[in-house]
Design a protein that fits this description.
The structure holds 2 protein chains of 2 kinds. Chain A is mainly α. Helices cover about 75% and strands about 0% of the residues of chain A. Chain A contains 11 helices and 2 strands, in the order ααββααααααααα. Chain B has 12 helices and 2 strands. Classes of the chains: A mainly alpha, B mainly alpha. The interface between A and B is large, with 80 and 84 residues.
Chain lengths: ~280, ~290
């Protein structure tokens, strides 16, 4: 765009930019408030604590809450040791070489793979080839692989930001590398690492495509690692897509949104604390 | 070697094994998707698979051109909507607003990234689809609806990476330009944007990857009809939707064909990832 007066040009462009920005923020707030407005009235003690009746037409969402919690805990338990171990190896035990570059590239690629591909992979490997069936186990393993890159990256950044002098002091006192890592580096890096874990919890709770083909959608409360289970996100998807019950769909969505809000708040607080500590 | 040294050695080896296994997942995933998908592409011919117009699994007819066109259509639509809004936000928050406003708005926008994709799809179903049906005609479930929702979904990716790369431009560039008498807007367009170009491009490529890979939201609002769309009000089926809609009950060659669809999706995503990777290493190299 050409204007004769650069000042007027700036005023006009600035106006347009702000309109775009305000629209963006408005859309975000609209989505959240709309779901909360329609969903909050549905939520009650009974809604949370009773099992779905009639495929979710009535009743609550208790079994899907259990399903979500179990699946998420499973995924975190598998991915956290792997992720932190990888991060420690990359930052403390090797210098930058071909191997670390390959690991980093691999984890970046994993982060970009769409969840439906994870779903397909988990379906063919865990559900069919290894015969775990649609189960908590297949679902947790699939989710774990999906959240691994997040945990690796955030742990790596957290460990890197611990000042080098802490390590030198520890070595000068005669500690070994492992002692330094576990007693000096990791304790200081924990808020940063926690950020990654909390983000991963959020991603696991909201995930649908990777879960529906690996953990299935059975509405009963799971009794073993090999029983199929339905998460809140999957339940919400089925309620909405098949038009089973709109009020219950809004209620479930509102709970998902509330959880995501809490998780974002927690990561924000953790991150600020971490940044304050080291800058 | 003392006990202590042996332990240290053992720990180092264990950690190396863990790091290696973490990365080997990528290889395993690639292997399984390709192992299941490639044979059927070879059997029916690459050309027939990629450019075939008919997808009738029961009659052994596997052509995914409509789905490829569908994916491209909704992704382009998402970029047309998401990029201008995303960049406008990023510029506003870095160049034209106080640090305080940025500190409030950035986490709010990043919140968008955490909302589950099914919730976006749901908003599309209950608000956008009826709106399009009533005001523009057609079934409502359409390229347009999917583009708008995907455009919103890629905003956080575009905004937060663009903000980071604009903030990474050395302050002296901006000061130099202002000192030469340029307005803030001229500085933004002629100095800041070119300097942050690779970061901004990375953000757009990653947003594109997110849009092309999105599944559940798209299934809910794109209509899933297998045909080449003639207008933005026509329903389409994307590659991701094709997989998700049918994998639950598919068997034999039908299932393999779905994995072959996954192969195409996988290749597209890998090309985008590599491009983003090259872009960001270029950026690091320059700094």
């Amino acid at each position: 765009m050409k204007f004769n007066n650069p000042r007027i040009e700036q005023k006009i462009m600035l106006g347009i930019l702000w309109i775009f920005t305000i629209i963006t923020v408005f859309i975000l707030l609209f989505i959240i408030l709309y779901i909360l407005k329609k969903g909050l009235p549905v939520i009650s003690y009974n809604f949370l604590m009773t099992n779905p009746v009639d495929m979710g037409k009535s009743g609550g969402i208790f079994s899907t809450i259990i399903g979500t919690v179990v699946l998420t805990i499973g995924a975190i338990l598998i991915a956290t040791p792997l992720g932190i171990g990888t991060a420690i190896y990359l930052t403390e035990y090797t210098l930058e070489n071909k191997f670390t570059r390959i690991v980093k590239f691999g984890s970046e690629c994993l982060a970009g793979i769409p969840s439906i591909i994870f779903g397909l992979f988990g379906f063919i490997l865990f559900v069919i080839k290894l015969q775990f069936g649609w189960s908590i186990l297949s679902g947790s393993l699939t989710l774990a692989i999906m959240i691994l890159p997040t945990i690796i990256r955030t742990s790596e950044e957290a460990i890197k930001s611990v000042p080098y002098i802490h390590r030198e002091v520890s070595y000068s006192l005669g500690s070994t590398k492992w002692q330094t890592v576990t007693r000096v580096v990791l304790p200081s890096a924990i808020p940063g690492i926690m950020t990654g874990i909390v983000l991963s919890i959020g991603r696991s709770i909201g995930e649908t495509a990777a879960v529906i083909f690996t953990a299935g959608a059975v509405l009963r409360i799971p009794t073993s690692l090999f029983s199929s289970s339905r998460t809140m996100a999957v339940h919400f998807y089925i309620l909405a897509r098949e038009g089973i019950s709109m009020p219950n769909a809004y209620g479930t969505a509102a709970i998902l949104i509330i959880i995501i809000l809490i998780i974002n708040m927690v990561t924000y607080i953790l991150m600020n604390r971490f940044i304050k500590k080291y800058s | 070697m003392s006990q202590l040294e042996r332990n240290e050695k053992l720990i180092q080896i264990t950690l190396a094994v863990i790091a290696f296994s973490a990365i080997s997942f990528l290889a395993v995933i690639t292997f399984f998707i390709f192992f299941e998908g490639i044979p059927i592409i070879i059997k029916y011919g690459v050309k027939n698979f990629l450019f075939g117009l008919d997808w009738y699994p029961s009659e052994k007819s596997f052509g995914i051109l409509p789905m490829i066109v569908g994916s491209i259509a909704v992704t382009m639509g998402a970029l047309i909507i998401g990029v201008p809004f995303g960049l406008a936000c990023a510029v506003c928050l870095t160049e034209f607003s106080s640090k305080r406003i940025r500190q409030i708005l950035k986490p709010v926008i990043e919140l968008l990234a955490g909302i589950p994709s099914v919730v976006y799809g749901f908003i599309g179903v209950v608000i956008l689809v009826p709106f399009i049906r009533d005001n523009f005609g057609g079934p409502g479930l359409s390229v347009l609806a999917a583009s708008i929702i995907l455009g919103i979904m890629i905003l956080p990716t575009i905004i937060s990476i663009s903000i980071d790369s604009l903030l990474a431009v050395p302050r002296t560039y901006r000061d130099g330009s202002i000192a030469l008498g340029a307005t803030q807007w001229q500085t933004t367009v002629m100095v800041m944007f070119p300097a942050a170009r690779s970061g901004i491009t990375t953000s757009i490529i990653l947003g594109m990857g997110r849009a092309i890979g999105e599944t559940m939201a798209v299934i809910m609002i794109a209509g899933n009809a297998i045909n080449i769309p003639h207008s933005i009000l026509d329903p389409v089926r994307t590659l991701t939707a094709n997989i998700a809609l049918e994998v639950g009950y598919a068997t034999g060659e039908h299932r393999q064909a779905l994995f072959a669809t996954g192969v195409i999706l996988f290749i597209i995503i890998m090309i985008l990832n590599t491009m983003a990777n090259v872009m960001s290493s270029k950026r690091k190299g320059r700094n």
